[in-house]
Amino acid sequence: MDQESEKIQTSPEVQDEILLAALKLFADKGYFNTSLTDIVEAAGIKTTGVLYHHFKNKQLIASVLYENIIDSLNVSIDDIKRRNPKSSDQLRAIVDLLFGLTNEAPNVMRFLLILKIDEFLPEQKPIMETAPFIKIIKIIQAGINAGEIRNIDPKLGYAYFFGIINHTLRMVLAGTLEKNSEVFQSMVWLTAWSTIAKK
Amino acid sequence: MDQESEKIQTSPEVQDEILLAALKLFADKGYFNTSLTDIVEAAGIKTTGVLYHHFKNKQLIASVLYENIIDSLNVSIDDIKRRNPKSSDQLRAIVDLLFGLTNEAPNVMRFLLILKIDEFLPEQKPIMETAPFIKIIKIIQAGINAGEIRNIDPKLGYAYFFGIINHTLRMVLAGTLEKNSEVFQSMVWLTAWSTIAKK
DNA sequence: GTCTATACGCCGATAGAC
DNA sequence: GTCTATCGGCGTATAGAC
Prior knowledge:
2 copies of one chain form a homodimer.
Chain A: H1 3-8, H2 11-29, H3 36-43, H4 48-54, H5 58-83, H6 87-104, H7 106-113, H8 117-120, H9 131-145, H10 154-174, H11 182-194
The first copy, chain A, binds a DNA duplex through helix 4.
């Protein structure tokens, strides 16, 4: 019969509703402009009691969001590394991933690119020190070693390459650049790649 | 004797102390993590009463800071345009200006580059719609017309060029890239320029 | 123009019944 | 696991004496 397990496990969905609502609100208005009652309303739950049953405080909601995003990025990058031997192909795939996210999950990208995360999650690692971004730096380093990428400080290479990519994505997210076709994407990729490519 | 005018005009200095303290704190901890008592202490004044005598609320302090920074940037750009006929030279001078500010007034650059201004100044124009940044777009447009810059959407050109510049400056501000020599600056400039230059 | 005292609201968080 | 009620505190802002 197993009635109990049914009853007990309604929570994960509620958790996701809360996280989704919070993500949208944070991305939209910022962390500090979002109150818990905002989240309660947007999540379609009735009271703050429910919210506090799932998360022990406001920060933790943001923290879980952050970790989820970083983790999912991390597995995507592992996947990309597994499928592509060359640094150039890996970077190209990462660009595709980020453009894809910008279309399909703009709030995730807003959270990552636009929010000043250390302002409300001071104890979390800064983005650049998280696993996926360390891996990206290593990809650039590997590209240098393999002779694909010119010999510069990998962090500077990161600044060049992702300076272009991120700034373009920010403008797409802000609506300043509406384009988001395949050709547009290829064009941006090519420009970014040219800043670090050898020759 | 003129005793009165002496007595009355002690205020502008106090105002500047407040603005300077607020700039530092905002750049450091963010707007929402900075309380008025923080500002009072850092400004070396005694009570919030003094503060409220000079600014009618917290937002206005940030607003005045923002406008001052934008205005000063605006006159610098006018100056640059007056002295340099070619778009490439104008952009190069702007890059020098921004690197200079990053060294000499890092908090100003943090305010501009890192803070999410619309989160606490929702009624202010977004940076990209302010006079100096409109002028920069026009400089790029002029460069395209003159055949110096390849024929792309000026906003995309902005994303390329300042994507690199800004991301580099962010890393310098964050301490991730320590370099800030003339050669370093030239190198970054050259890379940024190459993304939009014709040929 | 400066200070003290204080009001007031909002929001994060808790206690405890059901 | 959900709800009601409410607390406590912080931070902005004001009133009013000096």
